[in-house]
């Protein structure tokens, strides 16, 4: 949104009582000119203000008269006067310094009321709705011209009587190269990185799988969920049949669609707008995730047919891990296979690891660039990521989601020589049959022979089932080993994070994983671990390494990326890079 500038010179607001003292009882003020805000104007009358060090004459009186007297000056003025006023919103004068005010008929000694005015934005409610802000929110503005700057902490003032205008004092206007009548652009800012212009958009997030379609409709940038659901489908049911009821429900309410794409290889270091070329590239790497990418693309095609004019964004599970160094992603096989076929580790659950990293940054109140984090995404699929300086440094999953830790039905890392050996002993015709066993019949299910559900296995283990206990022990030991590995890779850690279904909801598994990590500074608070719920810290207050439980939210990462790509041309993650 483009907004006109009003440079605010030093001025004073007066009560009727103070006006009577300064100008004489019954004085009739003469209007000099109307101001942009309806009902506000400058009088011809002026006063002189005097502080401990000096005086400033010809301070303009603004009308109408108010219930409080207040002097608004610049920082330079405060040096001249010898006072130190705070930056405040108009009317917030408690605890502010006073000043001597002199008029043609008398003087007053204000005991409070001198402020440096907040740079602020006058907004009509319709303007605020368009920007997705409310009264007292903070935004930022970007100037144009030769001296382009971003001014943060701009206070939003919303009222039906307001007319759109950006107010700034003379000091900041001079430093920014602004004059009254110039135009600035309202933006949102993440630290020092420009993200984009505010604009309300409705973002539909789609996660199309072989057995279900999850969806959420977000209001952005407020991130309010308007509707959501999880529809099941059979393998022989066309995906379009599952998507059509969703499209019917959201109708024409949507502005952007975000699609989860599991595998982006090294082609997509961040989310991108979907084009014919992007579709071709995703198709070219479909063999890396044959169970996921084809159905993800099927969802893209169905949405493009239904909404051909709406921007559609691809968000990749692998993007977050594209910051890994070669020592983390290369396999010790002939280098030519990496060069020719891109055989390397890619990692997954990137949206989840990225989300919990961002939340940890806020919870710990430490910039991600200064944190060493070990993020444990523990669900039916399991991965651990070492995060250094806000970036993925190493992760447990590999070229495919089969690698790494013991999972619900996946084996995790095994000796590759087992694959032809199993094929030979079991009389299997193809390697794909062995891979299917490793993907769907292994892990907790394979070891226990009972279930891939941790809750079921915990119950069975308490009843004395030996294989259920063995499956859980193996599961925990693998997690424990990877945490130890990443403690070494990061030279220690500031926090250990648990997320996803089991990580969020199983205090017993968390306790088993952390047992023995005391040497590295990990100390659980048993009560916080067992009795609390939701997002929280479960480590002892004396624990050098903090332990956090953070419910993951991959959908909000998708919605944010889709929104910022559409309104600003880049994601928060890519802007930071």
Task: Write structural notes for this entry.
There is one protein chain. Helix content is 33%, strand content 27%. With 577 residues, the chain is an alpha/beta fold. The chain folds into 3 domains: 1-196, Barwin-like endoglucanases, CATH 2.40.40; 201-316, Nucleotidyltransferase, domain 5; 350-555, 2-Layer Sandwich (Nucleotidyltransferase, domain 5), CATH 3.30.420.40. The strands form 4 sheets. Strands 2, 3, 4, 5, 6, 7, 8, 9 and 10 form a 9-stranded mixed sheet that branches. Strands 1-14-11-13-12-15 form a 6-stranded mixed beta barrel. Strands 19-18-17-20-22-21 form a 6-stranded mixed sheet, sandwiched between helices. A hairpin with a 6-residue loop joins strand 3 (31-34) and strand 4 (41-50). Helix 10 (350-364) crosses helix 19. The longest helix is centred in the last third of the chain and has 25 residues, at 466-490. The mean pLDDT is 89. This is Acetate kinase. Pathway: Metabolic intermediate biosynthesis; acetyl-CoA biosynthesis; acetyl-CoA from acetate: step 1/2. It is found in: Cytoplasm. Homodimer.
